[in-house]
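Can anyone check this?
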Amino acid sequence: MRSITNYPSNQKGRGRLLSRHTPPVPIAPVLVESVDAFLSYCRIECGFADATQQAYRGDLRDLIEWMTRHRLVAWNQLDLHQITEHLRDLDSRGLAVSSIARHVATLRIFCRFLASCGHINEDPAQFVHQPAIWKTLPGILAPKQIAALLAAPNPSQPMYLRDVALLELLYAAGLRASEVATLECSHLHEDLGVARVMGKGQKERIVPIGRPAQEAAKRYTDELRPCLAKPHLPTERLLLSRTGRPITRIVVWQIVAKHAAQAGLHDVHPHTLRHCFATHLLAGGADLRVVQELLGHANIRTTQVYTHVDMGRLKETIAKYHPRA
């Protein structure tokens, strides 16, 4: 298992910040050991997704760097005042409120872990509150823009079939970037027209996929994937790179961004297709609970944001059914 001290950063600009704030003294080993134990707990006991573990790792690495710069070498030296100063330091770096809110969440769960293990007597983060975050509506594309994006891959390019299958699956099933990257060949059931998706927290769900996505995936698996697969790199992953290795969620982002630019679209990423999937379903009359199930949301409040996107349908409903409209 890679230690927190040598794990690569997963946030933009973090590497530059760490190099600019080089600790004046060596990092106390006890700090690193406790964080590594916490991350093992998150992986083994809680089954948190890799992205969640990486976010925790990066946030706690920031905390250790800050503590080391301020000559704090033990967790029992971390009190509410010190946590507040650390959060102020993050704010002075220009981090977004949402990023600071995630740091707070990380600190709260980590300090509870330290208290449960006896590393600290009292939880110093129990009185730290999440900063208020304005809820923003997700950006979506019109159906014509979606059609342009799906038609953007160039048939003359060697990875054309893979990219078409990737885009079709993202929009057809509302998948996250990590979900489509980890999709395996056996997870597609052509006879049933569904995909078996492993979501956050290793929660499995079944999502129906339309015929265009089914046909794109089948053509890719029949014609291109056998050429990409390498005998010395056996894998069940569906989507492969030129080298025969499974693509990562970062590569998924890059593929979507590339074809969005080709289609003349801006600020489009994999989650945009997920937003479009949900919004277009609701606009077509789908039940909110059904969309929640398809997206794999644990709480329907997460899904309710999409009810605010399609205001046109809401206005039509009022005009049609309200007696005084």
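Reply from J.R.: I decoded it. Residues 14-116 form a domain with the DNA polymerase; domain 1 fold (CATH 1.10.150).
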